[in-house]
């Protein structure tokens, strides 16, 4: 029984983790981090920690407040699924077409860890919307815990990638980094389409029930 009870939470956690990882795209954020911290190479570890913590706090706040926002504005889950799916799709199309990562052209600052690295490079509109969609779908305690674990896991992975980003960029080179970014963009597009399908399916089924 415990295995069956934990299965939905685990399945939800896998979906949450993969969705967030695709939207946060920490590998694509690595060269941006290198560029923005070029004038503060000796403080890169500190800046990476601060940026990751900022992104994590933003994601957790959106996860906790997501249902309250839905209730206050009378937003339905299917509506946000469709809107979030469209956002995923548009974001991924920019990546696939070669657009620069969100915040990539931000002006170099003495301390860019909170803005723009934490928000919006790591925790951008896409990942924040993802958290809100997932939070609205997490109806059980196991799923809510799985979502929190997915956020924390992604932030930790992002931190590790930022810390080793100088080595990654140097070893992979610009071509390999771009290929990985394209793959992540494709995954994001698929997730976006699936969210749209889920939202439309719910709307159509509800409409059919009312007409019956």
Largest sheet: none
Mean pLDDT: 81
Number of strands: 0
The proportion of residues in beta strands is under 5%
Describe the secondary structure blueprint for this structure.
Blueprint: H1 2-24, H2 26-36, H3 44-72, H4 77-96, H5 113-122, H6 125-137, H7 141-163, H8 165-211
Helix pairs in contact: 1-6, 1-7, 2-7, 2-8, 3-5, 3-6, 3-7, 4-6, 4-8, 6-7
Please tell me about this protein's structure.
The structure is a single chain. By secondary structure, this protein is mostly helical. The protein has one domain. Helix content is 83%, strand content 0%. The longest helix is centred in the last third of the chain and has 47 residues. The N terminus is likely disordered.
Q: What labels would you give this structure?
A:
212 residues; mainly alpha; 8 helices; disordered N terminus
Quick recap of the structure?
This protein has 212 residues and is an all-alpha fold. Helix content is 83%, strand content 0%.
């Amino acid at each position: 029984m415990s295995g069956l009870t934990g299965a939905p939470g685990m399945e939800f956690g896998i979906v949450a983790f993969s969705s967030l990882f695709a939207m946060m795209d920490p590998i694509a954020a690595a060269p941006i981090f290198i560029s923005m911290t070029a004038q503060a190479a000796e403080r890169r570890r500190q800046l990476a920690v601060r940026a990751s913590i900022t992104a994590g706090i933003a994601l957790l706040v959106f996860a906790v407040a997501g249902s309250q926002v839905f209730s206050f504005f009378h937003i339905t889950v299917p509506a946000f699924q469709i809107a979030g799916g469209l956002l995923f799709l548009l974001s991924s199309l920019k990546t696939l077409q070669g657009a620069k990562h969100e915040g990539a052209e931000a002006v170099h600052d003495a301390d860019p860890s909170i803005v723009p690295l934490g928000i919006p490079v790591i925790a951008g509109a896409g990942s924040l919307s993802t958290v809100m969609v997932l939070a609205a779908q997490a109806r059980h305690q196991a799923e809510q815990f799985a979502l929190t674990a997915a956020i924390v896991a992604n932030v930790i992975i992002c931190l590790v990638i930022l810390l080793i980003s100088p080595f990654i960029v140097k070893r992979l080179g610009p071509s390999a980094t771009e290929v990985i970014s394209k793959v992540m963009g494709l995954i994001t597009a698929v997730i976006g389409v699936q969210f749209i399908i889920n939202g439309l399916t719910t709307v159509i089924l509800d409409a059919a029930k009312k007409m019956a």
